[in-house]
Every structure is written in structure tokens, then in C-alpha cells.
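FW: tagging you since you asked about this chain on Friday. Here's the raw sequence from the shared folder, copied in full. Didn't touch anything.
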Amino acid sequence: MTSHDPKSFASTDRLILRGFIPEDFEAYSAYRSLPSVYRYLYSDPPSEQEMRERFDAGFNTRLSEDGDILRCAVVRREDDALVGQVSLKLASKAALQAEVGYIFNPAYAGKGYATEAAEAIITLGFERFGFHRIFARLDAKNTGSIGVVERLGLRREAHLIENDRFNGVWGDEYVYAVLSREWAVRAPNRAR
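HL: got it, structure written out here
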């Protein structure tokens, strides 16, 4: 990392999870503008102005009130390449619950980066922020994302039928979750 990089939130053998910096915008917008990235997000790629606004909003991340989101750039150690992002959204301060999310550049697919980064941010959520439960909501057709949470040992808690609609098409959603005590027990056994 360069000397002006923000604080690192977590790291793995291959990745660093850190705050976004202005220099990340080109790589961020390159993959965030791909229609394939939005296939399971129930939205179209944003305009250039919306892209810039979303990126800039990532500089002000915190986890103090319901709805707040901590966004982390996922950077490959070997070459500082921005490969994607992971996030924790404070779903319920009172119930100590957060939602994990991740979006990765398809150019880096199949290398285990999403699983590795999701594991790191879930661990961060439990160990640093003291969450009781962390969950993920996924399109039921998103096999890649389902693979990530299942490799990490999250439990499928719900299959919501036609609970969302985008461009006139109904979609199903899965909810996966893990409790802090379950994560602590499974930690040595999780696959990467």
C-alpha cells in the first residue's frame, strides 16, 4: 500500500480490506459499470454522475446507526489491484445484526477472493464490532454468491418466493446467516 492509503480494516494472506481512496475510482467504475455486475442486484448500472456520487459516499463509512454501511475496498497484496468491495450494513443496532455484502470485478472471478474477503469482513464484524448475527441476502439464481456463503458455513434460513421485482420480473431471494458463537466454533474449519 502507498503511504497515503487509509487505515486497513482487515487483511488476509492475499488481500487487504481498506477504505476507498480517490485513486480507486477508475478501477471501481470500470467494474461497477458492467451490466453483468448488476444481474443480481435488481438495478441497472448507474449513470456516470451516480457512479461518482456512490463512490464518494464510500469515503464516509461508519457503523453507528441502523442503515449505516462500512464499505471496504478489497485490494490484492501482490500488485495493489482493486478486485472488489465488501461491506457490512448495520441492520439493527438493538439486535446487534449486520448484513454482509460484496461486489467483485468479474475479471478476478474464480480465484477465491470473494470468499476470502467475505470471511475477513464477517470476522471483523464479530470481533471488532461485536455483532451477534450477520446475514446475507442473495438472489436465488446467483450460484456464485451462494457458493461464497456456503463455503463459509452460513446457514440458509429462508427462501423468499417472488419477494422482489426488477424490470417486471419477479425474483426469489435466499437469506443466509451465522451467529457469533457459531462463527467462533467454525473458524478453524472454514474453507477458502
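FW: Strands lie at 8-11, 15-18, 69-76, 82-92, 97-104, 133-139, 155-166, 169-179.
HL: agreed, and DSSP finds five helices and eight strands in the chain.
FW: great, closing this out.
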